[in-house]
User: Fold this.
Amino acid sequence: MSGFSTARLKMVDGQVRTNDVTDRRVLDAMLTVPREAFVPVARQALAYLDLDLDVSEGGTKRFLIKPQLTGKLLQAAEIGEGDNVLVVGCATGYLAALTARLARQVTATECDSALAAKAKDACASLANVTCKAAACAEGDPSAAPYDVIILNGAFEVTPEALLGQLKEGGRLVGVSAQSTPPRAMIVTHTHGEFGHRALFDAAAPVLPGLERAAAFVF
Assistant:
């Protein structure tokens, strides 16, 4: 077993399972997808650590969120094999590649065009993934409506445009930093109404374009 394979197994056993992720499909995806393939070569040694990993190379700071939070959000999303899923702020594409093993079709957006290109390359072998450069707050209406929208990060403002792309019965999962402490949240779309339910305390970097407007200071 290679060093990365051993590290991947330790990540799943030590960080993901121990944080109440029991969904076999999610665990299998995380055991299979090589996280190091989505990390700049100079930082690959950090690929399996319990941290939000900076994968940007200049420009806006962009991250792969912590493995345990990734697993918990995927489990909460309850992605079905026939689902059409939008991954928002995919960075280099790791979350999109995991989701591809759970869903029928995945559209992944990334606001940094250079990283979107890397995500496209990293996911090139996955026939059911489309990676695009697009603002995080905009989503991708062309492939909507979605059964599931999953955010690779946090939001400080209500992502109205994303909610508008949810199918009836669909759900959005991400970290709400609209109040303190931040919490993982599931938003469901039922009969034209949106229901919000807090899942667990969690922290993640805020996605570009979903930040709270800076307060004006005299």
About this structure: The mean pLDDT is 95.
